[in-house]
Design goal:
This protein is α/β, with parallel strands linked by helices and about 280 residues long. The protein has one domain: P-loop containing nucleotide triphosphate hydrolases (Rossmann fold, 3-Layer(aba) Sandwich), CATH 3.40.50.300. Helices cover about 45% and strands about 10% of the residues. It has 13 helices and 5 strands. Helix 2 packs parallel to helix 12. The relative contact order is 0.21.
């Protein structure tokens, strides 16, 4: 696959998706081992920061519509928070809007499932990050039978229309499924219990959710098959190796932002007159 981009490699396959056939410990197109990948991630950070600044600057101009939405989904401990910390943490927080979608509140339950999502969309010039997302409404609700099947099964088409609408309104969508193995999840949960500084992260409810691994896998496979489009593709990011996960998400963002052909606005300023005015004493 000479010349292929990481987006080409990690994009969810067309047709039925078998997550069991995708190795969560794989490292496709990695720039080297762990040390080199960490270094390369930092290099991405410098490039991403420049691209983000241009996007933010563009957003200050009249009529600007372009923004980026990064969606992070995956099993518990897959690294959604870690990705935000190590990848988004390299960017200027002024140009980012991070939303963590937990169980809906009473107010949110009174509205359509996309209501709270629309309220959290990034403004022009911004990079929005969804730590979990509207996909919870075809994942958790499916696994736990929170709504009838005829309800959640109709949401795939609703989500596709919603994302197509976003794309038409200037939103570039990058959706990452952080693919972790049950063995690695077990190791990370045990590590949380062993470390007093991380024990606060341990939620006993995660063990109950772990018991639904097969059901969640089937739910994610359906999402990846039915809701990956040219307007809003899904990428399956192997996440057993944290260093690869961070590098891959940074690379996906770099490739995506790079294709936007961003540049700084060129305001209509009389530079000579402004310099002359600045040359006068106050």
């Amino acid at each position: 696959m000479s010349g292929a981009s990481l987006r080409d490699i990690l994009r969810a396959p067309a047709g039925p998706v078998d997550l069991g056939a995708i190795d969560p410990a794989d490292t496709p197109l990695a720039p080297g081992g762990k040390a080199r990948a960490i270094e390369a991630t930092q290099e991405h950070g410098e490039r991403l920061a420049r691209l983000q600044e241009m996007l933010y600057a563009e957003g200050t101009t009249d009529g600007a519509t372009r923004r980026v939405l990064l969606v992070l989904q995956g099993m518990d401990t897959c690294g959604k928070d870690g990705t935000v910390k190590h990848v988004i943490g390299m960017l200027n927080p002024q140009g980012c809007h991070i939303t963590g979608f937990k169980a809906p509140t009473e107010e949110e339950r009174r509205h359509h499932f996309l209501w709270r999502v629309r309220r959290a969309l990034p403004a022009p010039g911004m990079i929005g990050i969804f730590n979990r997302s509207h996909y919870e409404d075809v994942l958790v609700v499916r696994v736990h039978d929170l709504v009838p099947e005829q309800v959640w099964s109709g949401r795939y088409a609703e989500i596709n229309r919603f994302e197509q609408q976003l794309a038409g309104n200037g939103v570039t969508i990058v959706k990452c499924f952080l693919h972790i193995s049950p063995a690695e999840q077990r190791r990370r949960l045990l590590a949380r219990l062993a470390d007093p500084t991380k024990r606060w992260k341990f939620n006993p409810a995660d063990l109950a959710e772990r018991g639904h691994w097969t059901d969640y896998t089937a739910a994610y496979e359906a999402v990846l098959e039915r809701c990956s489009s040219s307007a809003a593709p899904w990428y399956v990011v192997p996440a057993d190796r944290k260093w690869y996960r961070n590098w891959a998400v940074a690379q996906l963002l770099a490739e995506t932002l790079g294709e936007l052909n961003l540049s700084y606005p060129r305001p209509d300023l009389d530079l000579a007159a402004l310099r002359a005015q600045l040359g006068k004493k106050p």
